[in-house]
Known about the structure:
The chain has 419 residues and is an alpha+beta fold. The chain has helices at residues 3-15, 33-49, 148-166, 245-253, 295-315, 342-354, 368-372, 398-417, and strands at residues 52-56, 62-66, 81-86, 101-103, 111-114, 119-121, 137-139, 175-180, 202-208, 213-217, 220-229, 271-279, 283-292, 320-329, 359-362, 381-383, 396-397. It has an eight-stranded mixed beta sheet with strand order 1-2-8-3-9-16-10-15. The chain is globular, with a radius of gyration of 24 Å. GO terms for molecular function: metallopeptidase activity; tripeptide aminopeptidase activity; zinc ion binding. It comes from Acidaminococcus intestini (strain RyC-MR95).
Amino acid sequence: MEIRETLVNRFYDYVAIPSQSCANGGTKVPSTEGQWDMARAVQKDLERLGLEDIHLSEYGVLTARLPAHLPAGFTKKVPAVGFCTHLDTVDVNLSPVVHPHMVKNYDGKDLVLNADQQIVMTTKDHPELLRYQGDDLIVTDGTSVLGSDNKAAVTNVVTALETLTSDPSLYHGDIYVAFVPDEEVGLFGSKHIDFSRFPVDFAYTIDCCELGEVVYETFNAGSGKVTIHGVSAHPMSAKGVLVNPTLLAVDFINLFDRKETPECTEGKEGYIWCQAVQSNQSTAVVTLNIRDHDKTRYEARKALIRENVERLKKMEPRARVELELVDIYGNIADAVTDENHKAIDYIYDAMKELGITPKTIAMRGGTDGSYISTQKIMTPNYFTGGMNFHSRFEFLPVSSFVKSYEMTMKLLELIVKNA
């Protein structure tokens, strides 16, 4: 069976396992049972391939090791490399069940994903489709995301391991893998990696979009929760007594610049996103996302939130206002040093050898590598090939999918060659 067919078949097997994570899962990791199903399926594949030190933790983190296989008499030290991919798919209020199918030799026209429900992906709304005329595209029936974020990467890594274990002519150093849950809801899985089981010199995530994309710069990310305790009263006797927490939440939100929000920013422009308000007669809770590529500006945004909380307290001293700020992940670029930059260089070297044009982006988001890099393990990111993540119009060009796998294999080859 050729690699293309192997990749597609394995990808279909993985996306058939519903494994959405849940943003309201509380402190439980994984946040959903489906992620356990996905972890156990991958675990069985690793066991079949003969990997060592396979371990599925209480947090649904699956780790394993493929011991080095080097030529006889080879004495150079080959760095231990890791690959981290996430097991969950995003929940955007679409079906957790994925029905993928392939559009062969795409003709450049609008794609009818679901005739019964009249779900059509048009080239007007999605001009990126036109770049893939003549390619085979994996799409959904329009009722779900496809899940190439990140099951294309899981497929990539498992297939690379299968190739290495079946072909003794392919040499490599120690390879460690980590498959983690709950990336989509705050990188909670990578924060539960037991790094004694992932003792690598550097690592890679495979968790961004189109062919050629490279990411080693991400947001610094934090979350905020402002809880406003008002004073409830019956309207008949409310004058001078009632302190309305809902109106105070609105007043608090209006203290921020409306132009520094996700819908008004791009590139390396950061923001504070007042993401949700939950309120009743006595309490209101405002949840915030804080993002910026620049660490100083990120800290300044957190300081602004603190200042606005204090302003709110002065506006209505009878209310009790509480603030909770949490750092979620850091910018990978802040962890780059002269010593660990080689992990990034290998990506560009591999692309050059494979004839891929790099598209380096400062990601307006984060990867598991954003957290892992804070643990002194440089972890840049390269493409899966998927497009339109987190959408019913997600699609995966098969040629790009194959190139992502070839990147993984080329990286391992170059690491040995340059030892």
